[in-house]
Design brief:
Length: about 140
């Protein structure tokens, strides 16, 4: 979704407020993990949503029309993938919009953590794959 979407009379969403909401929800669920074993699932989903949202915002810059980050697929517009979004945030070609712009620099450990968050934990929860594994 580019721009705002109003739901009812009281809620207005855009990419930035949605990312902030995801981050706030992650914090709320982190506090619950000691007594609610389901909270960890929501921590993972919320962190993924926040990271994806902030990455999309970084690629767009301050002008929503500056970066067209949608692609046409079967006549439908979709956001670029999470993986592509993180990749572009690390690419100077996509990130250097102003003299203050910075590219995302990730260590190998951070890259692996993001990959596991997305490809293992988040995707398993969203696609209802059963697993039992300690989360480290």
């Amino acid at each position: 979704m580019i721009g705002k979407k109003e739901i009812g009379k009281f809620l207005t969403l855009n990419e930035e407020t949605n990312a902030i909401d995801y981050l706030e929800k992650a914090y709320d669920f982190i506090k619950k993990t000691e007594y609610d074993h389901w909270a960890l699932k929501w921590v993972i989903l919320s962190l993924y949503g926040a990271l994806y949202g902030f990455a999309i915002n970084s690629l767009r810059g301050s002008d929503p029309s500056n970066r067209v980050i949608y692609k046409i697929k079967n006549g439908k517009e979709n956001l670029i993938s999470f993986k592509e979004t993180i990749k572009r945030c690390q690419n100077p070609k996509w990130m250097y919009m102003t003299s203050l712009s910075k590219i995302l620099k990730l260590s190998n450990k951070e890259k692996e953590s993001i990959r596991r968050l997305s490809e293992h934990y988040r995707n398993d929860f969203v696609h209802y794959r059963s697993w039992f594994s300690p989360i480290k």
